[in-house]
Amino acid sequence: MFPTKGRRPSINSQPRSPTDYTSPARLCCPLLFFTLLLERTTTAMPSDLEKAMESLILVFHRYASREGNTNTLSRRELRELMENELSNFLRSQKDPGTVDKIMRDLDTNRDGEVSFEEFVSLVVGLSIACEQCYQLHLKKIGGRK
What we know:
- The chain has 7 helices and 2 strands; from the N terminus they run αααβαααβα.
- By secondary structure, it is mainly α.
- It has a domain at 48-140: EF-hand (Recoverin, domain 1, Orthogonal Bundle).
- A two-stranded antiparallel sheet has the order 1-2.
- Helix 3 packs across helix 4 (75-85).
- Residues 1-22 have low confidence and may be disordered.
């Protein structure tokens, strides 16, 4: 199942050929694994939502792999991620302690690290807030509800 014999591919490992690459999202879910099989037999491209899921996983692990536990974000890794990947949101906040407050809110098990599940809750919360702003904008311009 894995392209590298005897070893599980890491997020940083380079594929040997285009057919060797297996994204993390496609490894963890049977539906996405099925997508991988389709890609090898057809020219089917992943949907926008599948690409978004893969992007969440890859961005999280790009920052999580910088220090310590590669499956969690430290406070510094979370700050770097937010400064680079959520810079517009961070700039709109008036409080310089925003990242620390977010860290306290996300770290539900109080281990000083943010797991992928805890990180996704941040993305979901921000997505809901953005969608609500979008709905207000539509109402303002006379769009649909």
